[in-house]
Amino acid sequence: MGIRLENISKFYTSATNVTMALQKINLEFGNKGFVAITGESGSGKSTLIKVLSGMLSFEEGELYIDERPMSVCEESDWEEYRRGKIGFVFQEYNLIDEYTVLDNVESAIIIRGIRKENIIDYAKKMIEKVGLAGLENQRASKLSSGQKQRLAIARALAKEADIIIADEPTGNLDSENGQKIMELFGEIAKDKLVIMVTHNYPQAEPYVDRQIRLFDGKVVSDTGMTITEQSGSDAKGGNQETKKNKWSGVFLAWKYTLKNIVRQPMRLSFIALFVVITAVVSFFFLGQIVSHYDDTYTKDYDDDVFAYENDRRIVVKKSDDSVMTKEDYSFFATIDKVLEVETYDLCNDIRYYGIPGEDYYITYYEQSYWYMDEPVTVRSVSFSDEAEPKFMRSASCIRESDLKEGRLPKKRNEIVVYSDLTMEELDSFKVFFQNEDVWSSVFYEYDFEVVGVLKEKTTQIYYSEAFCDMLTASYKQGGVTLEGAWCTIDEQYKYRGILYPMIGENLTGQEMQLSAAYYPAYTRCAGLAHMHCISFDNEHSAANIYVDKLTVEGETEKLQYKDMYIGESNEELQAAFINISEDFFYELCDYGSHQASLYIEHYAYTDEVLEALKEAGYDGVSSYRISSVEYNTDKVENRIILLLTSFAILIVIALLEMFIVSSFLKLKRKFYSVFGFLGMEMGVLKKMNYFEVNLYTVVAVLLTVIFGLMGGLKELTVYFKPVHYMIYFLYNFALAQITVILFNRYLDKKVFRNKK
Ligand code: ADP
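# adenosine-5'-diphosphate complex -> structure
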């Protein structure tokens, strides 16, 4: 065993000049003894020991270790050499300050891969040997200078290295402590080679066996023996072969990653904090992109077809346009994300006004007509545009369990509302209905009784299915033609018009009821010569009704009802409607609904629900989407700005993570160099960085996603499909890898081996 330097030269080249740090050095070392290297500052001492320990490459000559030329060696051989043969002691101790005394020594043993029954006991023995017994659990940073250097020596000893290389080990110590360290080295040098750089040769002199003096990169004197080898001692030392790590690299990397998290909480918190920030920010802005991918919201809503503007509404029909059955409704209710199934979907576009003085105002005024003797009192109803528009809902959307009192509505005049009052305290009230699409400007008026009170606060009134069915049937029928007011002179009907049939509750058979608006006019008509009519208010007046009834097959059936009986006029009925009996109504109009509306949890689920409907053979549309046609320039602009900003932020946060996280990693440069010279394989050190940053990333990403799903970012997570989570994960994962790759490159260049 031995080290031999043959004509070794080392230059440092910079842009402007070349320094010859070592010039043609020839030296030989045996396997024991205490060697002091002296010389002025700049004479090449440090360079020499760095070359000796394989931390620095050289330009010329050859280094033989055990007669093996090292210039042809791979980096891994150098690592083996550093790990197996050399223990370092530096002026600055190079301890891991956050670790305890025991941790520091134990790390050296573990990294060295020394097989011991009990590593801790062994480490304690080394600690005792250097006089630090009792301080095992003290943090290295809390030790005095002398104690630190002793610890550094304990660590070097624990490695069972053949050679201890010490670079001005007493430089920071007082003379008493320095003396003790020299003594310790003298002791150690009895069976190991100790090579020490010193400025204070007199202090070392009593203990050293040999002094090598350098000047200007050359050996100017070399006292004492060149070799201290004794025959047979070659085989000595517990480390003839460099043992492979008992701990596999991965295990070692994990062990120290976790140890560092515990021992270096500051470093953990900064790196983890920034990883978390990146995870949250990227989730948020990726979410912005995902949630604005659909541009429906940049278009203005056109309420021509669907007056009810609700982005959660899916309108569905059967592909053969037949009436929906119970089975259809129960199927709709099973579709994921569907909250409510509205059977009478056509009613959902009928607007209602139910609160006097807020939704509508009634005024009365006197009106005179030329054909009337006295002015009549006329009622005028006006609607407020300010109130939030309310649209009908049928009781098909609610359950008995939604009520805190009463029952679901059954009869046409029954409703369910939310109120602070009890049912007993609630009066019956009237509601006005407006359906511009069909009735244009007129309204339909109806009186209701509250039969149930909802638990949850809402302004929505739920109407009975019977009432909604009537409106739906009337809507589908689209009006009947009425001929009335027979003129006896011309022998023909003087009034002919399209009226919308509704059910008059007290009517039977073919009784009919018309708006009171007709009566004054036609009463007077009767007195005019050229319009000698039988007026509407005549008890015996008759009328004809013609109906183009739509059959289930989609054809029209022509029905005629002659000489029908017109009864009392109805004050509250608008001129566009005609009240008929229930039996007669359903003779003209069909029961049932051909179209349903599904109300889903969120607009984001639209495509998903449409897809499910399509698969089951239904035709579905998002009423909101198909009614949003024209782009709104402002909204389009805002969307583009938002998308671009989000992309930009994703890029910026990526750069910041790479920069900031690797900067925090760089703060611990010392840790890497210590682990490096303790002999931890570069690959394991690099793995540690991967483990650390990936561990934080995975935890941060998972926490963000969980927080998002739990409702913290609900508005975004609703838009996330598995593919988006995938992108999110990949983005953060890729960032973590790039950050670590960049940092590991830095380690390669700056920390591990100065190849220059
Ligand atoms: P010593 O340890 O005896 O003070 P060094 O081995 O540190 O001497 O330095 C020897 C010479 O090499 C000096 O002239 C020094 O300026 C130069 N030197 C040392 N390290 C570097 C380096 N990394 N880059 C350039 N020059 C260096």
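# post-check
Confidence is low (pLDDT under 50) at residues 226-243, 526-533.
The chain has four domains: 3-246, 262-292+634-750, 313-473+594-625, 475-588.
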